[in-house]
Amino acid sequence: MPKIVDHDERRLELVDATWRIIARQGLEGATMREIALEAGFANGALKPYFPTKDTLLEFAFGHVFNRTNQRIAEVTAGKNGMAALRAFCLEVLPLDDERVNEARIVIPFWQKAVNDAQKAQIHQQSMAAWLDTIRQFLAEAREAGDVRAAVDDSILPASSSTCCSAPRSKRRYPRKAGPTSATPRSLTATSRCSPHDGADDPRGRGDAGHPGRPGRA
Questions:
Q1: Where does the HTH tetR-type domain start and stop, copy by copy (predicted)?
Q2: How far apart (Å, rounded) are the C-alpha atoms in residues 131 and 161?
Q3: Mean pLDDT per segment of 10 residues, for the chain of length 217 residues?
């Protein structure tokens, strides 16, 4: 009886292998040969799943984006306005190993999108979805009287999005990067949306260097 192969599972195995190689060797070290070797595939066996490294990177970015959105839905469930916005922004920050690994996929994708129209379109669509979510939370916060900034709501979402995404670049190589402790406060200062300062990660995960959070060894 022929062996049943779960192609979706195989693709995710290849994404995981790609993460591990990028963590050790950077994007340039993640060749198709190295990815196949890391995943335990025969050389050339990746072709049916990902004909090129670019198609693998696009799939990996989509996988990361979908995982992030699932977590965002979990941490913002039952919240609205400023509480939901802060939970959203903290969720996309690279504050633990899982999200640092995801950033290692996202940042190279952003870099390639600068000169690649197809990747640029994928990036724009994903960011447009996030901006719509931020606008919704800001509208709720304004209605509740929690937003004090005299700035048009068409500007604030972009500022909030920048605060959320910029630290991913800084944490691409965490051993060399500084702590992201100022980011939640930067979000507050940029939007002037909240009286709180230095809010914790809504998942309760500590981060070294953040006031009020236990540092990790």
A1: 8-68
A2: 7
A3: 70 90 86 93 89 90 92 96 93 90 87 90 91 92 82 62 53 43 49 44 48 37
Residue type at 131 in one-letter notation: L
CA pair distance 32, 45, nearest whole angstrom: 10
**Residue 93 and residue 183 in contact, taking contact as beta carbons nearer than 8 Å:** yes
How buried is residue 28: exposed, middle or buried, by Cβ count under 10 Å (0-12/13-18/19+)? exposed
* 83 closest CA partner among 91, 11, 26: 91
Report the distance separating Cα 121 and Cα 113, nearest Å.
8
Q: Determine the 3-state secondary structure of 22 from DSSP.
A: helix
Q: Which amino acid is at 190?
A: T
Is the sign of the CA dihedral 113, 119, 124, 126 positive or negative? negative
Contact 207, 96 (CB under 8 A): yes
Largest CA distance in the chain: 68
Token representation of residue 172: 């691409």
The structural domains of the chain, ordered by start, are 1-51 (1.10.10.60), 53-191 (1.10.357.10)
**Cα–Cα distance, 8 to 17 (Å, whole number):** 14
- The CB density around residue 10, as the number of other CB atoms within 10 Å, is 16
Please tell me the predicted confidence (pLDDT) of residue 33.
93
Judged on CB neighbours under 10 Å (0-12, 13-18, 19+), 21 is buried
